[in-house]
Structure formats: structure tokens, C-alpha cells
């Protein structure tokens, strides 16, 4: 990369705690290695609109501990069109931005791949930033650990009420296409079951859960449910219990957007810092159109096309662990 040009950095899609740590790492590592950096505000939408500002090391001071993203974020319909991407390309040329570092999830990286395919003189580097932890090629994504800890903290509080009132609580968490948050928060909080997209619960499984746990040994239960537009999520299962097992007192807690916020955990701060620094190392190695990931605690380069095309499998051993420990 020509060091007379700039590296552009943006955050796109849903926010995730640790994005600011990644912005800080990219900016400072770039400057340390002789590059200049411009921050792009409001994701691809801001790129199209030309909302661009040069970043200094001082601009990213005192942000590592903050949730959200100082660059703001947005979902851009215009960037999904050829005309929108052409506008974005023209802004990059005007601002002398040669490389684009995108912090976001599946949709954000899909946009990056299309952009890089259309304009071959642009280099795109992706950093996995999503609380869902659903990007293939990396063990962890930025924001996942913080969201997981937030869920566990909430479920601990809900259990106090569930136990006091002898209730079944269905707690809905994010992850409509991936059950990592639900499965692992269920294990960490001692929940009785997790209903996840990868292991869809049918009538028999719900019956098995109630007969095994609630009827025999427990006077309260917590079930973690991944949000699902297909079957209605936690509300759907609560209604089924009300109809099929009316003797039980059922409640629903939908945690919603509080899962996204909060000061990032130490794990997310370290992960984001390592991935951000690795993005600059990748540029120094002339890598193009890759996502920076982490596997077995080692930095890896994953082609963006693979990261967004392949489904990340959940470890089925986790399902067995929860089943055995929830008796």
C-alpha cells in the first residue's frame, strides 16, 4: 500500500462492545507503521455521504473501555446498489483512501466482498464484529464475550424471581440464526435448557425437558431461547406451555438490545486489540480482501468469501454438557 494514501475505517451493522477497542488498535497500529488513517462515520451510509475525518492517536484515546462505536454505525440500503457503491468509490478516491477496514458482521462483510470485486484497486480487510459469534473462520467475534456476560448477569437476577415464585422463565436472547449466545449462557447460568436454531426443539423435546427437570426435582426452571422470526421465539414456547401444561406459572423475559451495550469485557478488549493490530500487519504483507480471525489463540487470515459463505457450526458437545448438568 502507498503510504501517501489513507486507510479508511468504519463500523457497520449492529454495534458490538469492543468496536472502539478495534478502532483504537487499527488507528494506532497504522500510525506506528507509518500509515495515515481516516475514520468514516455511520458505516457505508457515511462513506457514500462523505462523512470522513482524519484520525490521530489522540482521537482514539480513552475509548477502549466504552461500548458502542465512536464512528457510529448504520445499515445502508443504498450501498447494496451499484450506484451506491459507485458513490462510495468516488468518495474514497476523493479522500485518497486506498484500503477499507470494515468492523462488522455477515452483512457488512458481504458488502465489502462485493465492493472489492467491483473495484479491484480497493483493498478490503474485515474484522469480525458481532455479538452473535456466527462468522466462519474465527473462534470468537468482537462483542460476543461481553454480550454473553451481560446475559448471564441478567439470568442470575431472573433466577432469584423464578425461584421465589416457582415459575418457568423463558429468556429470549439474540442470535436468530446462531445459538452460541443461548447455548453458552445456558451453561454459564445453570439454566435447565436452551432452544437454539441448530437443535430445534419439537413437542417431544419440550415434554422431555419438563418431565426430566421441572416435574421431578425442581420447582423453578429457566430456558434460554434464541430469538426466531420463524416460530416466535420465547413467546411461542411460553404459549405452548400455557396450553399444554396449564398447571405451570410461565413468564417471558426478552433481553433485547441491552445485550449489545455496556463496557467491553477484558476478553473483548484484548481480542479487538489483537485483531486491529493484525489488520495492519496483513496490509504490510500485501494481503487483500480477507477477514482477520482467531483460531486456537492464533491470528488467521480468512478469505472474506469463505467467512460469509460457510455456516459456523456449534459444538454439539455443548448440548450434551447442558443436558447432563441440568438434571
Question: Which key features would you list for this structure?
Answer:
four-stranded parallel beta sheet; Rossmann fold; 11 strands; 11 helices; 327 residues; alpha/beta
What does this 3D model show about the protein?
The chain is α/β, with parallel strands linked by helices and about 325 residues long. The protein has 2 domains: about 5-145 and about 265-310, Rossmann fold (3-Layer(aba) Sandwich), CATH 3.40.50; about 145-260, Phosphofructokinase domain (Rossmann fold, 3-Layer(aba) Sandwich), CATH 3.40.50.460. It has helices at about 20-30, 45-50, 80-95, 105-120, 145-165, 180-190, 205-215, 235-245, 265-285, 305-310, 315-325, and strands at about 5-10, 35-40, 50-55, 95-105, 125-130, 170-175, 195, 220-225, 250-255, 290-295, 300-305. Strands 3-2-1-4-5-10-11 form a 7-stranded mixed sheet, with helices on both faces. A 4-stranded parallel sheet has the order 7-8-6-9, with helices on both faces. Helix 1 links the parallel strand 1 (about 5-10) and strand 2. The longest helix has 22 residues, at about 145-165. It is elongated, with a radius of gyration of 22 Å. The protein starts with 5 loop residues before the first strand and ends with a helix.
